[in-house]
Write a structure and sequence with these properties.
The complex is a heterodimer. Chain A is an alpha+beta fold. Chain A has 2 domains: about 40 residues, no CATH class; about 300 residues, Cytochrome-c3 Hydrogenase, chain B (Orthogonal Bundle), CATH 1.10.645. The longest helix of chain A is centred in the N-terminal third of the chain and has 29 residues. Chain B has one domain: NADH:ubiquinone oxidoreductase Nqo5 subunit (Beta Polymerase, domain 2, 2-Layer Sandwich). The chains are: A alpha+beta, B alpha/beta. Chains A and B meet through helix 1, strand 7, strand 8, strand 9 and helix 14 of A and strand 3, strand 4 and helix 4 of B.
């Protein structure tokens, strides 16, 4: 997070102008600061400066028990809290060699696809608003509210849900939850048509997005782009299909890929993903298995409240897990999953104690941000806003 | 899904495309290998890391063309203290591999892989910022997360969690 240049705009030696965009610019979706070197309206060089939201979560994790890290992970990518929870839980479960019951896995998929819808709705609304279409923002947040209510229903929290636990889920989904999800899912496809009706064929939107911020397939791979940014450049990769986790192998879905590599291609990929996600939510509802929601591992998974009151053993395990945590066999794991923004990876190193020796998050927004310079150099200033929107940056994810 | 003991015998792991390419390039640069929890880790000599990455990126049938992540683990107080960790993904082959390099605390520097993947730029800056490991040949090795005038490297194990007071 270097401090220069200091002023808002100042001339450089070779006649260009250095312009600071952010960290308080509304289109930077948080506290992203972009230093632009411009000549007239054309960008000569672009440098993203990050770190304004750095909270040292990786360091904090090292001082917590394994189960205490779960609520920290929500705060990283705050638009996809359950995806973070899932990635961390899967990593620790892999370290432990823990088997998760089918119902918990399907619930995890269901919640993750709802999270993807939630995240994409915020992206779509803010992206369109950056480009001048304020109506879409209001429409998207209307539906997002429904998803947040569903989150509140299962976990008691709208955003920082922390619903997953190492070994399963925190709670049984409440009565009437699946009916509410079904109602939402049935209604939602029509809503996507509504957004598309406002944007996809809209000449102003197309002029602002088609052919803008082009990223070739070679550059996308070399610069480490991921998720819809990579798929918008023609690379057919989706970890849900290519390296299935948490029961994704039981779901049928298409992976939208576009070869144009511009803002519009990335937009189309994400909008199509909204439709695929709703399909997966419906599949999860239809095929939801019965059974326990927690793994049978008393030393790792907290016992039910009821058992604690009647069984001595359950009470002892509960006390031990809360006060001393549980030891995880030494080793290391890199667990990657497909978050709404791309490959999210948790690298967890255990030294055999009850606290992680090292937790590192491979953040998808962080990877995508590096492509911004390539997309924007030689383009106009006004297109930077479109480019930032199209890679869907979340600063909590970038700065950690 | 009980834990299976790790395989650490290089001979037994030869069939993995990443290890095969590295052994075919220069067997002396490969220090050790481990297959644990379905993940392959290869320890590479510090001097050969950039070349090893380039070899893997261009490997014929299963090119590890995508750099997922670069990070570091501090094993203070034991020596060699740092382990720089590279996670690579082969998009066509759908394989993953983890490369590791050990570094002494007194001379924590190694060659940058930004010439192989420009994506390494941010990751290496972050490792430099938070661990104090230097990358030679990096185009812009400045602090990334912490302010420029920050003292110390927060993710080192001898740096207190609450910071210096």
């Amino acid at each position: 997070m270097p401090q220069l240049p200091v002023s808002f705009a100042e001339p450089s030696q070779d006649g260009t102008l250095i312009l600071n965009m952010g960290p308080q610019h509304p289109s930077t979706h948080g506290v992203l600061r972009v230093v632009l070197e411009i000549e007239g309206e054309t960008i000569v060089r672009l440098r993203p400066e990050i770190g304004y939201l750095h909270t040292g979560i990786e360091k904090t994790c090292e001082a917590k028990f394994y189960q205490q890290v779960v609520p920290l992970t929500d705060r990283i990518d705050y638009l996809a809290p359950m995806t973070n929870n899932l990635c961390y839980c899967l990593a620790v479960e892999k370290l432990l060699g823990l088997e998760i019951p089918a119902k918990a896995q399907w619930m995890r998929v269901l919640m993750n696809e709802l999270t993807r819808i939630n995240s994409h709705l915020v992206w779509l609304g803010t992206h369109a608003m950056d480009l001048g279409a304020v109506t879409v923002f209001l429409y998207c947040f209307r539906e997002r509210e429904d998803v947040l209510r569903l989150f509140e229903m299962v976990s008691g929290q709208r955003m920082m849900s922390s619903y997953f636990r190492i070994g399963g889920l925190a709670l049984e989904p409440p009565l009437g939850f699946f009916e509410r999800v079904k109602k939402f899912a049935d209604r939602f496809s029509g809503k996507v048509d509504e957004y598309e009706g406002l944007l996809t064929g809209n000449p102003i939107f197309m002029m602002r997005t088609k052919g803008i911020a082009y990223l070739s397939m070679e550059d996308a791979i070399a610069l480490g782009a991921t998720g819809p940014t990579l798929r918008g450049s023609g690379v057919d990769i989706d970890l849900r299909r290519d390296a299935p986790y948490s029961g994704y192998e039981h779901f049928k879905f298409n992976v939208p890929v576009r070869s144009e590599g511009d803002v519009f291609a990335r937009y189309l990929c994400r909008v199509q993903e909204l439709r695929e996600s709703i399909g997966m939510v419906q599949q999860a509802l239809a095929g939801m298995p019965e059974g326990p929601i927690k793994a049978d591992a008393p030393k790792v998974v907290l016992p039910d409240r009821e058992k604690m009151k009647t069984q001595m053993e359950a009470l002892i395990y509960h006390f031990k897990i809360i006060t001393e945590g549980f030891a995880v066999p030494a080793g290391e794991v890199y667990q990657a999953i497909e978050s709404p923004r791309g490959e999210m990876g948790y690298y967890v190193v255990s030294d055999g104690t009850a606290k992680p020796y090292r937790v590192h998050m491979r953040a998808p927004s962080y990877a995508n941000l590096q492509t911004l310079a390539k997309m924007c150099e030689g383009q106009l200033i006004a297109d930077v806003v479109a480019a930032i929107g199209s890679i869907d940056v979340i600063l909590g994810d970038i700065d950690r | 899904m009980p834990l299976i003991p790790a395989i650490t015998d290089i001979e037994a792991l030869k069939s993995h495309p990443a290890l095969a390419s590295l052994l075919g390039w220069n067997a002396r640069m490969v220090q050790a290998a481990k297959f644990d929890r379905d993940e392959l880790t290869i320890w590479v000599e510090k001097d050969g890391i950039r070349e090893a990455c380039a070899i893997l990126r261009d490997a014929g049938d299963c090119p590890f063309n995508y750099l997922c992540d670069v990070t570091c683990v501090d094993w203070y107080p034991s020596e060699p203290r740092f382990e720089v960790v590279y996670h690579l993904l082969s998009i066509p082959g759908k394989e993953r591999v983890r490369l590791k390099t050990r570094l002494d605390g007194s001379s924590a520097a190694l060659e940058s892989v930004t010439s192989v993947w420009p994506a390494a730029n941010f990751y290496e800056r972050e490792v430099f910022d938070l661990f104090g490991v230097r990358f030679t040949g990096h185009p812009y090795l400045q602090r990334l997360m912490m302010p420029d005038d920050w003292e110390g490297h927060p993710l080192r194990k001898d740096y207190p969690v609450e910071g210096y007071r």
